[in-house]
TrEMBL record, chains A, B:
Keyword list, A-Z: DNA-binding, Transcription, Transcription regulation
Annotation: DNA-binding region: 24-43
Protein name: Transcriptional regulator, TetR family
Organism name: Kushneria avicenniae
UniProt cross-references to InterPro entries, sorted A to Z: Homeodomain-like_sf (IPR009057), HTH_TetR (IPR001647), Tet_transcr_reg_TetR-rel_C_sf (IPR036271)
Domain of life: Bacteria
Length: 174, 174
DNA sequence: TTCAAAGTAAAACGATCATTTTACATCGTC
DNA sequence: GACGATGTAAAATGATCGTTTTACTTTGAA
């Protein structure tokens, strides 16, 4: 395991648990076991570290979404929530904490959201045999809503999203 | 306009725009035009101010949701988003920034979410003539998803949520 | 075995954090 | 016209912020 892997993995957990701004460099050095000198040599700055954490999380999340149907997509989200916790979308949280004033973070967030939206578009077309931008938008909302509502409603929010998606997909098919 | 009104109104805008942790007391005193001495005399602490801001926002939001149908509820959300902006749910953002470690903030957030969920439950029953917990859960997810997705998809996310809700409501009616 | 690379530990940087305090101005009211 | 209440301005508190630097250790290859 490289220094960068340790750094990103442990930092992600800290950011997710305590928030980005509230997680200071001292908590990062203690939590990762990496000195601030080394941390800055590798990451450059705290914002760059955040952007990198988001980038790696995006990859990990995308791997989970390598499925063959919209229904499987929501099952995958159920799994994700079960093993990774329900603290809401870390990307939107980063955006909210920074007010959109940090370009490197903005880029990471928008790239992630674009990737998920594209994945949904592909699966909608695969399931129903044709493009359907309105339906894609609806599935995006359900996906985002499941993630956010799970914070206070629990896993049942994801189940409800999956059921809703099935109904909307079937309705668009006929 | 009382000191407290000025304080809460201006603070809410600052928190919403820049985030809670990133908005320091100096920005609050300058942004509200209220000295730190008076601020502390009225609010007690920054966390108490945050809780109060959330409480007032909850009231304002609830007033907007005084409608007669699920469809009107999503129309109301469209209006809210148009005039108040699309920076995501300020309550969930507060929760995320504090990691759930601030009891007064937790309470304000959970009270708000419980209130909205109850409103949705009432409207679902009014529209369809019977209780339907699963459908309520689905509408909650759509409502939350519209708020979150609007951050990067724009108002069309709310429109998509409204369309989805109409389909789910109609499907449950038959 | 020596040298450069890469790490830690810890101090220092100036800025900013939330909060309290000191000193002073502006009130409406008795 | 004196008084308590209520506000501002500004300094002080000690802690913590992100970042850099200094001094020292470890390590792997020439």
């Amino acid at each position: 395991m490289t220094i960068m892997d340790r750094l990103v993995t442990a930092s992600e957990a800290l950011f997710d648990r305590h928030g980005f701004t509230a997680t200071g460099m001292d908590k990062l050095t203690k939590g990762t076991g990496i000195s601030s000198r080394t941390l800055y040599k590798h990451a450059g700055s705290k914002n760059a570290l955040i952007a990198r954490v988001l980038g790696e999380r995006d990859k990990r999340f995308a791997r989970r979404l390598e499925v063959e149907s919209i229904d499987a997509l929501f099952k995958a989200l159920e799994d994700w929530v079960r093993v990774e916790g329900r603290r809401g979308c870390l990307f939107l949280r980063a955006l909210g904490e920074t007010g959109g004033d940090t370009p490197e973070i903005n880029e990471a967030v928008l790239a992630h959201k674009a990737r998920v939206a594209e994945r949904i578009a592909v699966l909608v077309e695969r399931d129903n045999g044709r493009e359907d931008p309105m339906l894609v938008e609806q599935i995006i909302v359900l996906f985002e809503g499941a993630t956010a509502a799970a914070v206070y409603r629990g896993e049942q929010a994801v189940v409800a999203a999956r059921q809703s998606a099935a109904i909307l997909m079937a309705g668009a098919r006929s």
